[in-house]
Design brief:
Elements: H1 33-51, H2 54-58, H3 64-72, H4 77-84, H5 89-94, E1 97-98, E2 101-102, H6 108-122
Antiparallel strand pairs: 1-2
Helix pairs in contact: 1-3
């Protein structure tokens, strides 16, 4: 008969099954309502910013993924138009360092495509 079968008394478990309940502070791992609300607002604002990129995405000058990345970093098409008129242009804006690497992309092809599109709008 194994130690896991009931011998008429309480089941005895080997010592490795008996562990003290860890003392975990659950408040440290929980999320409060203001954090959830902040995430909801960020997503809503990002989707509004993303809508401003509809024409540039439709013209295939920028992919939807790059437009999403730009809108999540707080940019709209108006920011791109303004940057295109300044020294450094789109390149400086897209390659700006941030905590996760660069703001949007380092890809010369994408930067050239977006710059060309914006130059075509200003003509």
């Amino acid at each position: 008969m194994s130690i896991f079968q009931n011998k008429g008394g309480p089941t005895e478990f080997p010592p490795f099954f008996v562990a003290e309940r860890p003392k975990i502070n659950l408040h440290k791992h929980s999320v409060d309502a203001s954090s959830v609300w902040g995430c909801i607002l960020f997503e809503k604002e990002a989707s509004i910013r993303l809508a401003t990129f509809a024409h540039i995405v439709g013209a295939k000058a920028m992919s939807t993924q790059m437009a999403t990345k730009a809108s999540n970093s707080g940019l709209t098409i108006e920011h791109l138009r303004l940057a295109a008129t300044r020294p450094g242009g789109i390149s400086a804006l897209f390659q700006e360092p941030c905590s996760t690497g660069v703001r949007v992309t380092k890809s010369k092809r994408i930067i050239h495509s977006v710059s060309g599109y914006l130059e075509g709008l200003s003509d």
